[in-house]
Design goal:
heterodimer; A: mainly alpha; Rna Polymerase Sigma Factor, Chain: A; Arc Repressor Mutant, subunit A; 2 domains; B: mainly alpha; elongated
Chain lengths: 195, 95
């Protein structure tokens, strides 16, 4: 067995751990924050990501960028965190707020109002701020499933597997999350902008 | 005839996976007559495409927003990394 000497002198080419915090700290933190909506927890996960990456640096094959590689590790940590949360609080979700959107016969109680042109809305910082707040306001499970499917673009099958939920459950969560997000944005005044 | 509640369910799901033919037709028929669901469909589609990786909303959420690591947190992380880097043993505890 060839004894391997590890340490600062035998780093994988292309990785520069000393510069990780400076180069990627903020980006990873923002990514974690969008998924967790909790600064302390986001910080912890970023820290864990760096340490895990350091341990696994031998396995960095250089196929992705340093950032992409670190992000991949962070994504796993986020999924673990979601799973852990779900174990701790298995609440059944009977969504009164969503039910209230529709009448008993299933028709809209109050239909969606018109939105401004997305081209313009996307450039509007207030729209982005509202979106950020509304994402943070989604209830736990809906927020998690929505982030994995919509923000990360994961296959729904992978999300079901990762979170250990059924596909029926996933579709219910996505449906509710979209109804809620849309309504939340509208409530913040974006339904009534002049178009 | 599909209710609006059921229609929104299909509208949401079709963004993530193809619907069965029967569902597709039922939804198409509903949308033909339902102004509100058409609007709902357009709005969630805009969010869907914007939020997807590479989408403009996605980039804005991840890039700007003035969020950054607190300086103390960053310093702490650097120290921990440095500490871990200078630990002499490898993963298997061999030299």
């Amino acid at each position: 067995m060839g004894a391997k000497k590890m340490g600062a002198d035998t780093l994988q080419p292309g990785l520069d751990p000393q510069a990780w915090v400076k180069r990627h700290g903020d980006a990873l933190f923002r990514y974690a924050l969008v998924h967790l909506h909790d600064r302390a927890q986001a910080q912890d996960l970023v820290q864990e990501t760096f340490l895990a990456a350091l341990k696994a640096r031998e396995r960095y094959a250089g196929r992705s960028s340093e950032r992409g590689w670190l992000l991949g590790i962070l994504k796993h940590k986020i999924m673990d965190e979601y799973r852990r949360r779900r174990r701790e609080q298995p609440l059944p979700e009977n969504d009164r707020e969503i039910d209230a959107l529709f009448l008993d016969n299933g028709r809209w109680r109050e239909g969606p109002s018109a939105w401004p042109d997305p081209e313009r809305a996307f450039e509007d910082d207030r729209f982005i701020a509202a979106l950020r707040e509304c994402l943070a306001a989604l209830p736990g499970r809906q927020a998690e499933v929505f982030a994995l499917v919509e923000l990360d673009g994961l296959e729904t099958k992978a999300v079901c597997k990762g979170l250990k939920i059924t596909s029926t459950n996933l579709w219910v969560m996505m449906h509710r999350a979209r109804l809620r997000l849309r309504q939340c944005i509208e409530r913040r005044g974006f339904g009534r902008l002049p178009c | 005839m599909l209710s609006c509640r059921d229609a929104t369910r299909l509208i949401s799901r079709r963004l993530d996976e193809p619907l069965a033919r029967r569902e597709r037709w039922a939804l198409r028929l509903h949308l033909l007559f339902c102004y509100w669901c058409r609007r709902f469909a357009a709005q969630v589609r805009v969010l869907h495409h914007g939020l997807y990786p590479g989408g403009r909303l996605h980039r804005k959420l991840m890039d700007q927003g003035g969020e950054s690591l607190a300086p103390e947190a960053a310093r702490h992380m650097e120290e921990r990394l440095q500490q871990a880097l200078t630990e002499p043993t490898d993963e298997n505890g061999r030299h």
